[in-house]
Amino acid sequence: MISNKNDLQDAHQLVRTSVICFAASFIIGTTLFAAFQFTDELLLLAIGFVYVIAAFIANIIVLINNIISICSSPAGRQELLLSSALLLLNLPVACFYFSLITPGG
After folding, report:
1. pTM to 2 decimals?
2. In this structure, are residues 77 and 35 in contact, taking their beta carbons and an 8 Å threshold?
């Protein structure tokens, strides 16, 4: 019983971490994109590309952690699946922003 309770607490912590990672990635990425759109400052573009790589790595680490937890314990599985899907929502947003800043986009 105790391990199930601990597993559920761990799952809830992973869900919170996933939501924070999603929100931070989305807000920072959107802010950088908007700032670049308004200023056309190439430094912001460079910072944005570095940020996309860093955010991708952070999101992948959290996603892999979620997947490991989903596979190893039934506790909080549905919430972890939903928070994993939330993390994956950043991918089409990043692709859309990229299509808008590239020539012909």
Report:
1. 0.86
2. no
The backbone torsions φ and ψ at residue 102, rounded to the nearest 5 degrees and listed phi first, read -85, 150
Two tokens at 62? 């959290």
The three-class DSSP label of residue 102 is coil
Could you report the per-residue pLDDT of 80-102, keeping only the tens digit for each?
999 999 999 999 999 999 999 88
Domain that holds residue 76: 2-101
Q: Nearest CA to 79 among 21, 9, 6, 24?
A: 9
How many structural domains compose the chain?
1
Query: What does the block give as tokens for 14?
Result: 């992973």
Amino acid identity at 20: I
**For residue 95, with 0-12 CB atoms within 10 Å meaning exposed, 13-18 middle and 19 or more buried, which class applies?**
exposed
